Amino acid sequence: TRCFAHQINLIVKDVLKAGYGDIVQQAAVIVAKINKSSSKWLIRVNGEMKKVYGKKMALLPLMEVRWNSAQAMMGSLLRVKSAIQTFHNQYNSPDPDTFPAEFEPLGDNIFWKKLAIAEKVMLPLTKASCRMQKNNINFSDVLIVYGRMYHCFQLDTTHGNHFVDLIEKRFKKEEILLLLLALMFDPKSYSFFKQVCEQMKTQVPLLTASSICTISVLYYKKFIGDDADEIKRLVNQIQKYYCGDSINNLILSNCTCSFDDWELISDSVGEEITALALFILSIICQSATCERLFS
Length: 295
Description:
This protein is mostly helical. The protein has 15 helices and no strands. The protein has helices at 4-36, 41-53, 69-78, 81-92, 109-132, 139-154, 160-171, 176-185, 190-200, 209-223, 228-243, 247-253, 258-269, 271-281, 288-294.
């Protein structure tokens, strides 16, 4: 499978290019210019921070290979806005000829307004990226993260429609049926899955019990085996699980550890459905852990 942490990083890159590339580039140049001038401008910026906040705070750079660092960079600039504006007013007025042209946007309220909007748009993407880099994620987390990004971009009145199109374009490339089964099997998302099915199954045939059984059989044959008796038992187990007529559904809805919980109820819920659930929930969704270990 693909690394979904990397996929989120690519979405961040697409969003930056589509709507906020110019403002991010301006902010990145400003931060880089300040940080590189450690003997002049950085000292003066830190001095203004100490006067305003009583301490100095770092301006975080944009890392080209980590596009989600854009939000951190913009946030670090916005949190010291008052000190930065004071710095601009103090050192630009007496000697405008030697004041770097890169710093001119610091005195422009439109720049700060656009920067705040861009940072707000990037925040849900940064949260999604951080979540996708955790060790214990599975395909249900992937589906939920896509949903949250979609919802956040719908609220963006400026570029929202275009950003939603970017999300949908990426999402259509995913193995959606597998993500749906993970959402059903994961104890953390089981209640949410049931709620979605109850509300949407009349509009989305894919969420009906018969469709879920068909999808489950498809992946059981792909991952486990195609024994006819096992398939028959699996269909019966999925139907009971989907309808919620088992005490195990209540157990799962209050649990947090996928593997321990499924192994705990495997004898009562059924061997076939347990085997399929454990296989799907064990699929690794990201390679960020390996990259951190060997980088």
